[in-house]
Every structure is written in structure tokens, then in C-alpha cells.
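PROTEIN ENTRY
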Amino acid sequence: LYMWTYAVVILHLSNHSYEKFLLPFFSFAAVSVSAFCFYVLFDYMFNLNWLSESVKEEMYLQIGVHDGFVRMNNVNVGMFCFLIPYLLASIILQGKGSDRITVFAFLIATVGAVLASRRIVLLLLLLAPAMTYLTFRLAEFKGSGVLRRTLGFYCLSAVMLTATLFLLSSYNSTVFDGFTNRILDALIVDEQSPRQVQHVALMEGFLDNPYVGSGFGGLTDVVRSEERPWTYELTYSKILFNGGIFGMISLTLFFVFFTYLAILKVQKCAAKKDVYIPMLVGFFSVMIAAASNPYLSSFDFIFVLSIIPLILNSRSSLTQGERRTAAG
């Protein structure tokens, strides 16, 4: 029933001009998720208590204050993995034509991601401009403006990071050490970390049945959740364990083939490249984040899998109003 409902919704959206609503919608979503990040911080600092404890618990509104960084959580903070790369790709493609609301949403979401201390989001922030330019070139578009803005973003990021580290080291060595250790810890393999323990267990299970896997729902000796013991944080290790070599290759070829078709569609619809390329960048970003997060097993993120069908099934031609907008 779900798959039929999903197909009907995608086909319905594909037959309408949904593109003009995407950027405002995702800008609003980015600001909304950021607002909860700021609320968690201000609630901790000023004891606001605007929300009941049951609501806070349901939305996972939590905060931890450490030396050099804070770490906060809410049920939607993982959406930054899609929203921030999507908004940044839109800004890079549109350049000076970017809407101020889009720029504001991107900046406020970036601050929210820093406050949330989500290292994967910061990594995607750095990868998004490169993914934008590479997708732009794969679709055989030409234009020095996109490359210039991509390089400009990296230069500005390098300057801001250097200045931040200098100020932190001058202000408080404890804060500086906490901040840098938080970033560098992501590069160190900790044999006792939950993700590493899960990876080892999944690979051992994979070797027990390497060709067709355990089947979806298979379990290992490591249990991440008592309520859902079949879930693991490492999406691709889990797929290899569940589907084996045959399942992994089949799914990889499936996504690569339809992603290739989506890029061909972008190439044919040059007038809509500013809509489609950010969608693809957001899609790629979530797929990268899924390597160390169970996003593809979450109902909240299942919409990401609709991006490729939406692009492939969207109308190739512009309406009369869209032609006037593109021309003017």
C-alpha cells in the first residue's frame, strides 16, 4: 500500500510545476530546523521552558556543553545533510541572482549545524560546492561563473577557518583544544566506538554468507536498539550484510543507472538546471551521510529517494509563464 501511495504522489507532483515551490519550501525548512537549535541553546541558557518536558522528549531537544563546543539534538537536525548542500548549490548556480531569503536560510542553517556539532554536515558543507560544479560539468554545461563562485567559497572558507582557529587559540587554549579535538576525532579509528563495533560485526556476518547475505532483517551479535535490533548506523555495511555481494552490486547499478538518466535529463532541460542540480547535490549529500548514519532506514529521509523519480518524470518543456521568467 505504501509503495502505491508513494508512486501516486510522485506521479502527481511530476505532472505539475512543483519546481517553483522547492526553494522557498526548503528555505523555510532550514530556518525552522535552525530555530529549534537556537531554542535548545536559549532554553539551556535562560531556562525558557516554553515547551513541556514531554514535547522536548518527543522531539529529542537535548544539549550537551563541552570544552570548545556544544552538541545539541532535535528530531530534524539530520535534515541539514540535505538542506545545507541544497541551498548552497542553489546559491552557487544563481550567483548574484540568489534570493536574499535563500542566502539567509543557508547562513542560519550553517550556524545551526555548527551549534549542533554535526561533523558530517560540516563535511558536506565543504563537499557541496565541488559536487555542484562536477554535476554542472557532467551535464555538459559551461560557464566560468560557477567555477569562480566555487573557488571563491573555498577561499573564503579557508580564511574564516584560519581566523576562527587563531581567535580561539588566543582567547582560550582549553576551548581551542576542545574544538580541534572534536574535529580531529572524526579522523581517528576508535576500535571501541559504537560504529566501529557495528562495522566489525556486520563484516563478520557478511563473511558467513557473502554472496546473497543474511536477508533483510538479519541480526548480528551487536544490537544497536532493543526495539529495532535489525537497524544499524552504517547503511552500506548493513546492505552488504543483508544483501551480500549480489544485493550490493544490484542496488549500486540500480542507483547509478537512474542517476545517469537524471543527469541526461538535466542536460536536456538546461532552463531548469538551477532546480535540478541542487536536488541532485542534496541527494548525493544524503547518500554520503548515510555511510555513517541510518538515514535511509528512516521514514523522515525517505523523501530523498523521490528526487531521481521527480527529475525523470518532470515535464521537459516550460510553461508560458516559466518561459517569460527564464527570459526576463
